[in-house]
Amino acid sequence: MAELDLWWLTPLILALLIGLICPATGSLLITQRRILLANLMAHSVLPGLILALAFELDPTIGGLISGLLGALLAEQLNQRFKGREEGAMNTVLAGFTALGVLMVPLLQARVDLETLLFGDLLAANEADLIRTAVATVALLVLLSLSYRDLVFLGVDPDGAVAAKRPVSRIRFTAIVITALVVISAITAVGIVLVIALLCAPVLVHVDRCLSLRGLMLRSAGTGLLLCGGGMMLAVAADLPPGPLIGVLCVGLLLFKRP
């Protein structure tokens, strides 16, 4: 009887963790003007996830490798198409998404694409919590070791390079952590909707915060309310939590005071 009463506990904990780390990560990406890269990575993880699930491997490894490959390919194409970087990155985004969809019939993988694309928070398990905990710890380590450099990169990226700060290492580490955050959030909101959770809570606070720390804390608090409230509303209304959270993110921007 106790198990039946507590079936919602794991999904709720996962929703709250995702609500914290997605906006916190989004704060870093938006202040560094690299949020399009996060959107690309959110879609680039799909082929790796499909491949890992088809061969019964850890989806975190497959998604991480695939996401990094997508980011590296986009960086190469950006060098080739200077001034047209957004077009190149969107093409890579679409290509990796299409590749992931094609791999399902090619590998005859038993994969629920709808769950991957839009999430299934109510089916969360301990493995999802572990992946999210790893992403959370990785983000905290990055912040504790490189907070000043992250602020420097957000305010003056050219100055950070001129000051010989480890810009490349920090950006690569941030890319890896972004991939981990995206993979951990797939169960909650899916590949398509994770970008809303990375952006919306940040956008409502970015103009009013005087520090990166303040922006991350406020954004994380808003994300916590969105995910926790979204899950409870979804359970009460018998709706899928991921899409409902995505709609709440749009509503948050619509009702934001100018």
Structure description:
By secondary structure, the chain is an all-alpha fold. The protein is built from 11 helices and no strands. It has helices spanning 2-5, 9-31, 35-54, 59-80, 85-107, 113-118, 126-155, 157-162, 167-203, 212-237, 241-254. α3 packs across α9, α4 (59-80) runs antiparallel to α5 and α7 (126-155) packs across α9 (167-203). The longest helix is centred in the last third of the chain and has 37 residues, at 167-203. The chain starts with a helix and ends with a helix. The mean pLDDT is 89.
- Kindly provide the radius of gyration, computed on alpha-carbon positions and rounded to a whole number of angstroms: 18 Å
Distance between the termini: 49 Å
Note the beta-strand portion. under 5%
Largest sheet: none
The chain-level structural class is mainly alpha
The total count of helices amounts to: 11
The coarse silhouette is globular
Low-confidence stretches: none
Count of beta strands:
0
State mean pLDDT (0 to 100 scale).
89
**Helix/strand order, N-terminal first:** HHHHHHHHHHH
Tell me the helix content. over 70%
Summarize the structure.
Helices cover 82% and strands 0% of the residues. It is an all-alpha fold.
Which terms summarize this structure?
mainly alpha, 258 residues, 0% strand
